[in-house]
Structure formats: structure tokens, C-alpha cells
Amino acid sequence: MRLKNKVIVVTASTRGIGWAITQACAKEGAIVYMAVRRVEDAKKQVEALNKEGQTIKVVYCDAFKHETYRSMMETIMKEEGHLDVLINNFGTSQPKTDKDIENTDYSDFISTIDANLASVFITSQEAIKFMKKNRGGSIINISSIGGTVPDISQIAYGTSKASINYLTKLIAVQEARNNIRCNAILPGMIATDAVAGNLSDEFKAFFIKHIPLNRMGHPQEIAALAVYLASDESAYTTGQIVEVSGGFGIPTPVYGDLADTDQKR
């Protein structure tokens, strides 16, 4: 029960990584708020877990309506009186329009950046107000390996995630005096419904060739790190950009072509 009685909010938490984080934190004794658009659907989703003794609540938040970030925090404070952990899991991308520098319209470019940065900047800004009152807290940003390794497409997504990585360090430095920590988790290719639905089997197989651990990650592996960063065990950890990608991006660029051959130096 490493998170016993801690109040935690997780944005975009009905599926994939967000849902795994929600469950993992609840199992560790936290009071977890799922910040979602479809409130009634989410309430049904957590009924069984709450009956088992976990505490998962639902609060309305539409990531594309900035004012709901503020109302979300106000609701949590009204109900709980304090906030210990903010987990910024929301992120969006538009593969059909988010291409390379030559073929991406600026309006599409900036809309993705605005959505992804607002989901971290505004929520953190609001959370910090309340964390200062209880003399500390932890902010965890779910970024992406795409923010550190340039790609041949998705220029807006990569730029937004790189910005989140830098913003993470800024928050860590500026709020350390208030005992508020901020760290980022950078998932690589994770086996979620989004990956299954948006990427072909051929592309996934090609990508995995460049991952030293030779597989996709699991949402629970991201959740495990989130629990640590939310807990008091990580009280001396802040400003860290932690890649959870199976080693992707570390080897020589020809790694994927040579790993399964005898053509080694």
C-alpha cells in the first residue's frame, strides 16, 4: 500500500497506459480520480474494482476544453481537500495530417502542439496551487520516446513531446522550493489498442527489430514506474526524463539490420 490515502488524478485514463496507471495506483491504496470526457461510461468501468475495496472516482475533463482542467481540480479539492499526485497522461496525434516539415500545414501543426502542451501546462499550473497548500506533491508527465528521437513524420507530435520533456525539468526546478517534484516517463512502442489499431503488423515487426529487448512494452510496465514516482520512495527524484522503451534509440542505426546476423565487428 505504497500510495495509501494519496489523492491522485490521471487524465485520459479509460484505456491503455492511463487505465493501467489508474488500476496500479488504486491497488496501492490511492484515491484515484479518472479525468475523462465520458463520465458515466467510466463510472461503469470502475464499479467492480470499487466493490473490491479500491477507490476510483470519476471527474469530468475534456482535454480540448481548457476550462475543464480548472474545474476538474476544483472538484477534486472540494471533495478531498488536498491533491498529492497529478499524472498527465493525455496526448493526441493526427498521423494523416502530421507529416514532415514540407507537408504539414501550420494550423495542424500548432493544434497538436496546443492540445498536448495545454494538457500538461494548465493542469500542472492548477495542481501546483493546491499542492503548495499541503506542502508538496508529485507531477508525472507521460511523454514519449518520440520527443527525443526525431522521426520521418509526425513533426508536431515529436515537437510537443520534446517540449513536455523540457517543461518537466522547468517545473522540477521552479517548484522544488515547494517540495513539488516533476518527472516524465517516455514510453516507446507499447502494446495498447491505439498501437494495434493504427500501425500495421509489418511496421510493428520492422520497429521491433530496432528494440534491443526485441518486443513491445506493456502498459503495466509504464504503470509500475508511475507508482514509484507517485510514492514517497522517489522523494529525492525530480526533473528526470525516464525512457521506458526497451532500449530503442540507444544502439547504432544499423542495429536492426545486423542484430540477427553474423556481421558483427
Describe this entry's structure for a reader:
This protein is α/β, with parallel strands linked by helices and 265 residues long. The chain has helices spanning 16-27, 39-51, 67-80, 106-133, 155-175, 193-198, 201-208, 219-230, 255-258, and strands spanning 7-11, 31-36, 55-60, 85-88, 137-142, 180-187, 241-244. A 7-stranded parallel β-sheet has the order 3-2-1-4-5-6-7, with helices on both faces. It is globular and about 60 Å long.
Shape: globular
Distance between the termini: 49 Å
Give the rounded overall mean pLDDT.
Answer: 94
Strand residues, percent: 5-15%
Q: Approximately how much helix is present in the residues?
A: 40-55%
What profile does the largest beta sheet have? 7 strands, parallel
Number of beta-strand segments: 7
Structural class: alpha/beta
Q: Which strand order do you get reading across the main beta sheet?
A: 3-2-1-4-5-6-7
- Discrete helix count: 9
Low-confidence stretches: none
Order of SSEs: EHEHEHEHEHEHHHEH
The protein's oligomeric status is: single chain
Alpha-carbon Rg, integer = 19 Å
Produce a short descriptive summary.
The chain contains nine helices and seven strands; from the N terminus they run βαβαβαβαβαβαααβα. It has 265 residues and is of the alpha/beta class.
